[in-house]
Automatic annotation (TrEMBL), chains A, B:
Task of the protein: Involved in the assimilation of dimethylsulphoniopropionate (DMSP), an important compound in the fixation of carbon in marine phytoplankton, by mediating the conversion of 3-(methylthio)propanoyl-CoA (MMPA-CoA) to 3-(methylthio)acryloyl-CoA (MTA-CoA).
Domain Acetyl-CoA dehydrogenase-like C-terminal: 481-592
Acyl-CoA dehydrogenase/oxidase N-terminal domain mapped to chain residues: 37-155
Organism: Aureimonas pseudogalii
Sorted UniProt keywords: FAD, Flavoprotein, Oxidoreductase
Uppermost EC category: oxidoreductase
EC number, as in UniProt: 1.3.99.41
Catalytic activity: 3-(methylsulfanyl)propanoyl-CoA + oxidized [electron-transfer flavoprotein] + H(+) = 3-(methylsulfanyl)acryloyl-CoA + reduced [electron-transfer flavoprotein]
Similarity field: Belongs to the acyl-CoA dehydrogenase family.
Identification of the protein by name: 3-methylmercaptopropionyl-CoA dehydrogenase
Domain Acyl-CoA dehydrogenase/oxidase C-terminal as annotated: residue spans: 288-337, 348-462
The organism's taxonomic lineage, starting at the top: Bacteria, Pseudomonadati, Pseudomonadota, Alphaproteobacteria, Hyphomicrobiales
Domain Acyl-CoA oxidase/dehydrogenase middle: 160-266
Molecular function per GO: acyl-CoA dehydrogenase activity; flavin adenine dinucleotide binding
UniProt keyword Oxidoreductase, yes or no: yes
Length: 600, 600
C-alpha cells in the first residue's frame, strides 16, 4: 500500500526546488519550516491512511452513471467530506475566501500524495483549484462573492469544459454557443466531452467553467469566451435554487481512473427547471477573451497533471520495491555479486538480481527527477507571484515558470507510464493480475500524457513558444544554472559521484547545442524543421535537468552518498540517451518527411 | 478493424527471413511460392473477417469461471470450430498424424495474423503446438497414438503446466509431486498457477503437460519430470472415459487477454471420477529429464510469444494509422510542411503533424524490425530441422536459432507494449476510452514481456548462454552478415538510404564492441559484470539487427524507395539509441551496485 514519502518530498521542496532559500528570504508568506513539516506530515497521514485504502474499490466499482446521475464508489463521498473538513481543498485558495494562500509548490507536493494514493481521487480537486484561479483572476465581484467561498472550502467542486468531439487539441474548432440575455446573463447551448468530475454525488452543487462562442464572435480562438454555469442556480441567500439546463448525458468507460467520472455534458437541451431552454451562464472575464482566461490557469493545471504522473510513478516504485524485497526467486547464477554465493537451495530476494536492481534504480531516478522538475516549476510560479512589483524578478520567474511548464507536464506523465509499466515487469505474472494493484497504476497513468494538452503539444509549446522567450536568454540562463551544478559536482571531488560531472557536462553541452540549433531554425522561420524533433528535445531537456537536480540534491546532503550514487546511476544509465536524442533532434524534418511514403 | 498485412508478411518471409532462397534450394518440403501465397491469403481472410470481429466481445465478456467450468465468450466456441475445420491447427503438425508439416516460419507468419486479430484467441493454439512438439519428440508410442491425431486436428487442446506460486522464473523450486504406479502410470498431486487455457469449453478434452517431481528425484531442476495428464481419461477406442482428478480452481482477473482463461489447476485433490486420489498421468520422455523435454519446445514457444507481441503491435500500428488519416485537428502552425498552407479554417488530418508522423513511423519501423527478427528466428529453426544429417549446416542453423530466440521473444514483446502505448497516444483522449479498442491492445500486450521467461531472463539467456556458443563464433558470424547488409547499402548508392550505411555501420561497430566486452567478462568468470548490462545489450542487438533487416528488405526491392526511406528513418531516429545502450552495457555492475544504497 502507498506510503507518502514525506521526508523525500520535504527534502525535494526545500533543497532542490528552492523553498529553503525562499523561506529564509521571507518570500513564502506565512510558511515556515515548522508549518511546512506539519502540513506534509498530516497530508502524508491522510493520503496513506485514508485515501490509499479506497483506491482499489474506486477502481473496481468505478463511478456509476444512471438516469443522468453519477454515484461515486462506496466510501468516496465520506472520504471527500473528511478531506475537505481537513482544509485540504483551500490550501492555495485566497485568504479572503477562506483559503490558506500557501505556495503552489506546497500544494503540488501535497497533491503528489493524493495522486500517489489514488489518481482518480487526486484529479477532482485539481479542477476545483483551476476554477478558483479563473474566478479569482477574472470573475466579477458578483461571481466571487457567490462562488469562491464554497469552491475554496470544497463544499462545491468545479469543472473545466473545453473539449468537444471535433475540438480536442485544437480549440479553435469549438461550436458550443452562448447567447446574450438582457439581464447580463447568457444562455449556453452545446455538447462537451471528456469533462472530468462533470457530474457526481460528492457535493451538492457543481460549478462548470465552459468555453463557448458568441454569435458575433470572430472565427478561431479569438472568438472564444469563458462562462460560469452552475449545476444548480444559487439564490440570493446562497442556498441552492432551480436545476440549471445542464446535464450529464453519459460517462466514459475508460482504461483507468475508473472512480473519476468522465462526462459528456449537454448544455441547453431544455431539461432544466428554469422554464426556458439554455443553460444559464455568467461571463468570466471579457467576451472573446476566454482563451486568455484559460491560459492564466493553464500553467498550474499542466503542472498538476504532471504531478499526477509523478504520484502514480512514486506509488509504482514503492510497490515494485516492496515486492522485490519480499519475493524470492533464483540462485547464484543470477546473483548480483558472484562472490556472495548463498547456501545451496536458498533463493534470494529478486532485488539481488542485477536486472531487477536496474529496473528499480531506473524507476527511482525517474521519479526523483520528475519530482525535482515539477516542484521547481511550482516554485517558479510562486516566486513569480511573490515578485509582483519587482520587474526584473517578475520577468525572471514568470519566464522560468513558462519554460518549465511543458517539462513539468510531459516528463512526469511519461515517467508515470514508464515506471508503472516497469512495476508490472518487476512483479512478473503477478503484475498482470488485477488484484495485485500494479496493473491499475499503469491503467491510471496512461491518460496523463494525453489530457491537459498532449505531450506532443507540450513539446511544440516548449520549442516554439518557450525557447524564444527573451530571445533565448531565458533558456540559456537556465542551462547556466544546470552547468553550475555540474561544476559543483566536479568541485566536490566526491568519489560517490563517479563520472557524474563529466557525463552531465557532456549532456548539458548537447542541450546547449540542440537549443541553439532549434532557435536558429525558429529564427529562420523553419518551424517544421524545429518541430520534427520537439518531442526528442523535450525528453533530452528533461533528462539533463532531472539529472542535474539529482546532483543538486546530493550536493545539499554531503553525507548522503546514496544520493550521489543515484545521480551517478542516472548519469551512467539514463543520461546516455541524451546523445541519441540529440541526433533525433538534428535529423530534422527531412528524414521524417522522406519516410512518409512508408505510411502510404 | 485489423486487416492482416498479407503482402508485407509474405515479403518479409521471402526476402528478409530467407524463405525465397530456401524454396529455390528445395529446403522447404512441399512448400512452393504458390502454396505459400494461398496459405497467407486464406489465413489473412480468416484472421481479418472471422477472428477480428470477435476480439472486442472476447475482451468485454471474458472467459467466465463457475463451479469448476470455464465458459468462453459468445461466439468463440464456434469460431474455434471454424478455425480447426480450416485445418489451421495442424499447419506444422506431423504429416503422419494429419498435420501439414509446414515450416515454423510459415506458422509464425500465420500466427502473427491470429494474434493481430485477437491475442486472447491466438495464444490458445500456441500451447497445443507446444504439446504436439513435446509428445512427438519425447512421447511413447502409446501417447502418440492416443493423443497426437486429436491435438494436431485441434479436436483437443493442450496446456503447459510449469508455474507454481513459489516457482515462477525459477523452476527448481517446483513442488508438484508424482508417484509411480505398478501399471506404469503415475499419480500427480499439486497446484499449478497461470495455466493458459487450463480449462474452457472449446474442446471436449484438454491435454495437460505437467512438470512434477518424483519422490526420489534429485533436488533442483535435475529432478523434474514431465507428465501428460488428460482432463478426461481416454478409452481404448479413443472415446472419452472418466473425469481425471484434475480441476480448475479459479481463473485470474487479468489486465488483458480476458478471453484467454488463466487458470489455477489442482491435481489430485480427489474430485475426479476415477475412484482414487491423484491425477492419472503418463511420463513424457524419461524420469528427471522433464526440463530437457520442455527445452525442446522452448525455442518455438518463445518465438510464438514474440509473435504475439508482433501481432498486437501490427494491429496497433494499423489502428493508429487509420485514425491519423481520418482525424482532423490543427492548422498551419502545426503543419509538417510550412509551405503547404491550407485554406484558412481548414483542419488537416493529424498525420500531417510532424510529431504524429514521427510516432507512426516509429511504430512502423519497430513492427517491421520485430517481424524480421521473429521470422528469421523461425526460418533458422526450420533450416536446422531441414539440415538433419548435414553436420555443419545443422550446427550453423541450430546455433543461429538459439542465438535469435531471446531476441525474437523479448524485442517483439517490448515493441508490442511500446507500439500499443503509442497507439493510445495518437488517438488522444479517444485512445483512453475502452470502446475505441486501443486500450485493449496495450492491456493485452502487457503480459507478453513477462510470460514464457521474462524479458530480463531472455537477456540473461542471450548474454550468458548464447554469446558463448561456439566460443563466440556464432554471434560473430551473425554480425558479419549484418555488416554485409550495411556494405550492400553503401554499395547501392541509393539516395533514399540517406546516411543509413554510415549509421548502421557505426551501430554494428558498437554491437561488436559490446559483444567482445561481454564475452571477455564471461570468459573471466565475471558473470555479474556481464549481466548488469544484459537488458541494454539485448535491445542494442535487436535495434541493430532490426535496422539491418529493414535495409535488407529495401535492397530486395530496388524500386521501392519507401522501404529505403523507412530504413533511413530508423537509422536516423531509433538507431542512435545504440550508442546510449553501449554506454549502459559498459557501465557494468559497479555503478549499479553502488547505487543499491539508494534503494534502502
Amino acid at each position: 500500500m502507498y506510503k507518502a514519502p514525506v521526508t523525500e518530498i520535504g527534502f525535494a521542496l526545500r533543497h532542490v526546488a528552492g523553498l529553503e532559500a525562499a523561506m529564509v528570504e521571507g518570500l513564502t508568506g506565512d510558511l515556515t519550516p515548522d508549518l511546512l513539516d506539519a502540513i506534509l506530515d498530516e497530508a502524508g497521514r491522510f493520503a496513506s491512511d485514508e485515501i490509499a485504502p479506497l483506491a482499489a474499490i474506486g477502481d473496481r466499482e468505478g463511478a456509476v452513471f444512471r438516469d443522468g446521475a453519477v454515484t461515486m464508489p462506496l466510501g468516496w463521498k465520506d472520504l471527500y467530506a473528511r478531506w475537505t473538513a481537513g482544509g485540504w481543498n483551500g490550501l492555495t485558495g485566497p485568504a479572503d475566501h477562506g483559503g490558506q494562500g500557501l505556495p503552489t509548490a506546497v500544494s503540488a507536493a501535497v497533491c503528489e500524495m493524493w495522486n500517489g494514493a489514488s489518481m482518480a481521487f487526486g484529479i477532482g480537486p485539481t479542477l476545483t483549484i483551476g476554477a478558483v484561479d479563473a474566478i479569482e483572476a477574472h470573475g466579477s465581484v458578483h461571481l466571487k462573492s457567490v462562488y469562491l467561498d464554497k469552491l475554496v472550502s470544497g463544499e462545491w467542486m468545479g469543472t473545466m469544459n473545453l473539449t468537444e468531439p471535433q475540438a480536442g487539441s485544437d480549440l479553435s474548432a469549438l461550436r458550443t454557443r452562448a447567447e446574450r440575455r438582457d439581464d447580463g446573463t447568457y444562455r449556453i447551448f452545446g455538447q462537451k466531452i471528456y469533462i472530468t468530475y462533470g457530474e457526481h454525488d460528492l457535493t451538492d452543487n457543481i460549478v462548470h467553467l465552459v468555453l463557448a462562442r458568441l454569435p458575433d464572435a470572430p472565427a478561431g480562438v479569438k472568438g472564444i469566451s469563458l462562462f460560469l454555469v452552475p449545476k444548480f442556480l444559487v439564490e440570493g441567500d446562497g442556498s441552492l435554487g432551480l436545476r440549471n439546463d445542464v446535464k450529464c448525458h453519459a460517462i466514459e468507460h475508460k482504461m483507468g481512473i475508473h472512480a473519476s467520472p468522465t462526462c459528456t455534458m449537454i448544455y441547453g437541451d431544455g431539461t432544466g427547471e428554469t422554464g426556458e431552454v439554455g443553460a444559464v451562464g455568467w461571463l468570466v472575464g471579457e467576451e472573446n477573451r476566454g482563451l486568455a482566461c484559460m491560459f492564466t490557469m493553464m500553467n498550474s493545471a499542466r503542472l498538476y497533471v504532471g504531478i499526477q504522473g509523478l504520484g502514480v510513478a512514486e506509488a509504482a516504485f514503492q510497490k515494485a520495491l516492496d515486492y522485490a524485497r519480499e519475493r524470492r526467486q533464483g540462485r547464484s547464477t543470477l546473483l548480483a555479486k558472484d562472490r556472495r554465493e548463498p547456501a545451496s537451495g536458498e533463493m534470494v530476494p529478486i532485488i539481488e538480481h542485477p536486472d531487477v536492481a536496474r529496473m528499480l534504480l531506473t524507476m527511482k531516478a525517474l521519479v526523483s527527477s520528475a519530482r525535482a522538475i515539477a516542484y521547481s516549476c511550482g516554485h517558479a510560479l510562486d516566486q513569480a507571484k511573490a515578485a509582483r512589483g519587482r520587474e526584473e524578478a517578475l520577468r525572471h520567474w514568470s519566464e522560468r515558470a513558462n519554460l518549465l511548464t511543458p517539462l513539468a507536464k510531459a516528463f512526469p506523465t511519461d515517467v508515470g507510464v514508464e515506471v508503472a509499466s516497469l512495476c508490472i515487469q518487476v512483479h512478473g505474472g503477478m503484475g498482470y493480475v488485477e488484484e495485485t494493484g500494479a496493473a491499475r497504476l499503469l491503467r491510471d497513468a496512461r491518460i496523463a500524457p494525453i489530457y491537459e494538452g498532449t505531450n506532443g503539444i507540450q513539446a511544440i509549446d516548449l520549442v516554439s513558444r518557450k525557447l524564444p522567450l527573451s530571445d533565448g536568454r531565458t533558456v540559456a540562463a537556465y542551462i547556466d544554472e544546470l552547468e553550475a551544478i555540474a561544476e559543483a559536482v566536479r568541485g566536490s571531488n566526491r568519489p560517490a559521484f563517479g563520472e557524474t560531472a563529466d557525463r552531465l557536462g557532456e549532456a548539458l553541452g548537447d542541450l546547449r547545442d540542440t537549443t541553439a540549433y532549434l532557435l536558429e531554425h525558429l529564427r529562420a522561420g523553419r518551424l517544421s524543421e524545429a518541430l520534427a524533433g520537439a518531442t526528442a528535445y523535450l525528453r533530452l531537456f528533461s533528462l539533463c535537468s532531472g539529472n542535474a537536480y539529482l546532483a543538486k540534491a546530493a550536493l545539499a546532503a554531503p553525507d548522503a552518498d546514496e544520493r550521489a550514487a543515484l545521480a551517478r546511476f542516472m548519469a551512467d544509465h539514463l543520461l546516455p540517451e541524451v546523445a541519441a536524442l540529440k541526433r533525433q533532434v538534428m535529423a530534422g524534418a527531412s528524414s521524417l518527411d522522406a519516410a512518409r511514403a512508408a505510411l502510404n
